[in-house]
Amino acid sequence: xxxxxxxxxxxxxxxxxxxxxxxxxxxxxxxxxxxxxxxxxxxxxxxxxxxxxxxxxxxxxxxxxxxxxxxxxxxxxxxxxxxxxxxxxxxxxxx
Amino acid sequence: xxxxxxxxxxxxxxxxxxxxxxxxxxxxxxxxxxxxxxxxxxxxxxxxxxxxxxxxxxxxxxxxxxxxxxxxxxxxxxxxxxxxxxxxxxxxxxxxxxxxxxxxxxxxxxxxxxxxxxxxxxxxxxxxxxxxxxxxxxxxxxxxxxxxxxxxxxxxxxxxxxxxxxxxxxxxxxxxxxxxxxxxxxxxxxxxxxxxxxxxxxxxxxxxxxxxxxxxxxxxxxxxxxxxxxxxxxxxxxxxxxxxxxxxxxxxxxxxxxxxxxxxxxxxxxxxxxxxxxxxxxxxxxxxxxxxxxxxxxxxxxxxxxxxxxxxxxxxxxxxxxxxxxxxxxxxxxxxxxxxxxxxxxxxxxxxxxxxxxxxxxxxxxxxxxxxxxxxxxxxxxxxxxxxxxxxxxxxxxxxxxxxxxxxxxxxxxxxxxxxxxxxxxxxxxxxxxxxxxxxxxxxxxxxxxxxxxxxxxxxxxxxxxxxxxxxxxxxxxx
Lengths: 95, 479
Known about the structure:
The complex is a heterodimer of chains A (95) and B (479).
Chain A: H1 4-12, E1 17-18, H2 19-30, H3 36-48, E2 52-54, E3 63-66, H4 68-94
Antiparallel strand pairs in A: 1-3, 2-3
Helix pairs in contact in A: 1-2
Chain B: H1 2-5, H2 10-26, H3 31-48, H4 52-73, E1 78-85, H5 88-98, H6 101-109, H7 125-135, E2 136-144, E3 150-160, H8 163-178, H9 183-194, E4 208-211, H10 224-247, H11 249-276, E5 281-289, H12 300-319, H13 321-329, H14 337-342, H15 345-356, E6 357-361, E7 373-381, H16 384-413, H17 417-425, E8 431-435, H18 448-478
Antiparallel strand pairs in B: 1-3, 1-4, 2-3, 5-7, 5-8, 6-7
Helix pairs in contact in B: 3-4, 4-10, 6-7, 10-11, 11-18, 12-16
């Protein structure tokens, strides 16, 4: 689970954040460090796909917000992952 | 990091540069983050940059940054230098000796010097010797001696990250050239004992230290400009390839296919060649002989003459037909098996001498008295271990023959027990194996990687020609 796109969507799911706040949040909940090039590569892609949108910049730092489309994509992705995780856990218990 | 951020496409920077630069200020700068920004910039250039030149320029800047980081992180070294004046005929033997594996191994293993701690392990001694051969410079120069006359000399320079070790190494090498190991004093003592009524000869001329090991000044870094230029060149080349792949993906894919195909054919050709043509390895050893510690007769001139004659006799004995026949027929080596099945042994040895065995004198003008002589012995054979063993065998025979000859002469010439005992202890000291038989690494036939690279190049050329021909045909058809 290291796809920067999904990690960013998950980070924005609980509220708007600017770049470095996302990096710190992802570092905390996923233990994954995103470099600046990787972060902005993913942000550019997510914005192009309409899954996130930029807000007004605050002191040069621009926060991003999850769009409705982004939220449904995240739900779909996480739902798929959830099924995989539950199946794996169940099978591990029986093994 | 801010410099690396300039590598992003202009269109992207117009939209994101302000917030991106604000983000970079929050990061703790390190090389991992710089590399991440550069990777992101290249990806974005490929994705967004339509301009061929932009990609090429971006890759060149990236190459320059990477090369700059490498150049400025490489350790600087201190250089110490000494100049030693010596007899003309001693210059080449000493030059060879100072760069020889045996001599450098002695220096590397000297615990007082403690050189190359990161490299030195029994299994990597050869690597440490190669590294030292790169750091050590032994150049011939014309030096002005104390009398003002010019004379040949060796300039010894050594560069090393530790200032005092650089100086200690140069001082040790210069001392080796200058030190006569007490031979002159011993010669005078024995002379008086054996021939008290004969005037002793003048001391042997010896090397003089014109300029002692210098205290290194400022450290010298690697050639940073050349490294950065190389980085820019590599970046330009890579940028040209990436730009071509972005602009003409189909054509690039086709050429890549041809290149891979060419490489595959090259490897197959290499396999055929390797099986069809046996590879050959050359092992080499170097032997030096200096004037004997003591003349056999009370005549100074006889000393060098006897040295030359003895060395020649030893060489003849080590390389005579019987000696070589013993090596060729040695069960362990079993050399030239198929040749021996076809031809008489004399013919095989003749071929061995003419084709595979090379004896080269270090200095062909053996005229000056009281100086050092030397030869290198090389043998080429398809098995590198056997090549090494043959050279070792010949060197052993040479050393034994030289020693036994000296022993015979001394026993017949010197009657006094004490003097004989003293001389016996130093018998053979004047013959030195400065480079033991080397274990050859690379063979004469090029490796499969060379064939693969040539095949790849030919594949690209073939693909390019095919595309050019196809385009020409299409143009003709359209016309």
